[in-house]
Amino acid sequence: MPSEKSIYNPNPAISRDAYISSMAEYRKFYEESLDNPEEFWMRVAKQFHWETPADPKKFLQYNFNINKGPISIKWMEGASTNICYNLLDRNVRNGLGDTIAYYWEGNHPDDYSRGLTYRKLLEEVCRFANVLKDHGVRKGDRVSIYMPMILELPIAMLACARIGAVHSIVFAGFSSDSLAERMFDCRAKVLITADGAWRGEKALYLKSLCDVALEKVEELGHTVEKCIVVSHLKRVTPCAEDHVEQDIPWTEDRDFWWHEEMEDKEPACYPEWMEAEDPLFMLYTSGSTGKPKGVLHTTAGYLLYAATTFKIVFDYKPGDIYWCTADIGWITGHSYVVYGPLANGATSVMFEGTPFFPDNDRFWAVIDKYKVTQFYTAPTAIRALMKFGEEPVLKHNLNGLKVLGSVGEPINPEAWLWFYRYIGKEKCSIVDTFWQTETGGHVITPIPGATPMKPGSASFPFFGVKPTLLDESGIEIKGEGEGYLVFSQPWPGMMRTLYNNHERFESTYFSKFPGFYCTGDGARRDADGYLWITGRVDDMLNVSGHLMSTAEVESVLTEHHRVAEAAVVSRPHPVKGECLYCFITPNENETFDPKLISELKKLVRERIGPFAMPDVVQHAPGLPKTRSGKIMRRVLRKVAVNDRNVGDTSTLADESIVEQLFQNRPVEA
Ligand code: ATP
Ligand code: MG
After folding, report:
1. Strand 294-298's sheet: what is its strand order?
2. Which ligand is nearest to the CA of 332?
3. Domains of the chain with bracketed CATH
């Protein structure tokens, strides 16, 4: 029986064929990447096309120290390229024209599935690039995209990249207010959307939301000139019959159907050669900690980093079938549904639906259907699916899997072990990838053929990344210990600024510890040098002088067989300074009762220590989560002190949960 304390060595069959097949090999490359980053990334750059080559003397220039002047990060200054050309034309030229870039799986299993080859994708991208040009979009213009997981989404992104327009994708689960705020912030020229999206049995009418948002932007004093709309609702699903009659609101001269615009367009479009540091896209963070930040990524460095992390961390080989369940509206979808896989000529599955429709085995059914070899998802999805036990998993053949990935939150050992055992059948590598919208790609992660795994540890840094742990006063913690996770030198994929707000960029990430990029997350280094992400530093607890992380306590609580999810926050306490306030969601068909409360208190006491004994354990029918599935602990801190000024909750998936939690506060609290 696997246990949390054990170390899991990579399956020798995976190591044998892997790009990086041992820790010795990992260390060799890692040291090279730090000692001589220019040399290291110059080698990586050779596989891509550069219209103007980089000047080796100016391959990397940066200032990370706020006391020495403005923060700046430049990779490959002087080089020019086009990222779309590298993802599509280059691969077609190299003989991958007939290789499938995407298999598209609709919301309903009976939807037609579609495969798109690299050649066809290139043609569609060129045609849409011509549509954008006809509508006046030029290099440097911002294009907002608010779309479901359909193939037109990567087509729209790459069309922007081809002509040098900057895409700003807003996850299609966001409200019209959030969309308006983001379109206004970037002064979007054009909006691309769809009539709607399918989520299980429900249709979401996106175009109606867009109309409200476009009006709001107008009120704020900016006009989005055009809106291009994919007709999606009618074309696919057996559920559609009940919904097709819905009228799509339309404004003449502003709104255009995608398919009508595409009809007469040339399937060729000369790429715009972009400077290495020209913006590629902007993307707002999830808003777990406050107002979303408009993170800006640029061209050359992002290409190198997305491509390399994808190849190495998933150990992607020609013939593999890769599936990342993240929505393209998040950074995970940008780097690991679109840019990373396509840069490697990979074949991916793209999925419109949810894990629960039409049944709780949908993920496993899709893995079986396409014979997926690499599967990348989030702890929140794993925990939700664990609740249904193994039976839905056992209905399907998952034997093709080699690498399982996790991203978004610390994965608690309980969920890790379930993933390892029931999905990976104890023969897959699990890569617990720590990274952020800001980092552009994985920064701390196991490597499948090399890293002996510890459940819940993101383990070691990726090439080019130099993590340091600092204490509150900025002193480096060497060896074992816990502190602020910071990075002391740039890697190619990191953000360059916050859009139109370099000041906020510097103050958020570089002012707390001059000389370092500050992630805002805490981490612990164990005796073997493994890094364990302990969560956001704002979420740390200090009980009677004992410093603890929420992740640590939550992973103990979720070990209880009746608990599905747990979230822990601190509450001020007159004697202890702070005390623990726990929110518990029981498993399906389990009740929440005094017996469970006392068992949980006992469990924490035994596993962490008497000082960690929770003061309050509250029933939570659901937890307040961002639309990317992360627990918003700042809201829970408000519930714990019964303060209804909860702040900005616009990025919550379900705002009604907040009220329920206030209602559910136990009397003694
Ligand atoms: P905001 O910055 O607006 O509060 P956010 O930080 O949730 O939103 P993202 O950039 O999507 O937005 O998420 C990055 C954060 O997610 C990290 O800083 C970290 O807290 C968490 N995270 C991501 N992957 C992991 C992981 N493998 N282990 C632990 N934490 C992770
Ligand atoms: Mg963040």
Report:
1. 255-257, 226-230, 190-194, 142-146, 166-169, 279-284, 294-298, 497-498
2. 1
3. 544-664 (3.30.300.30)
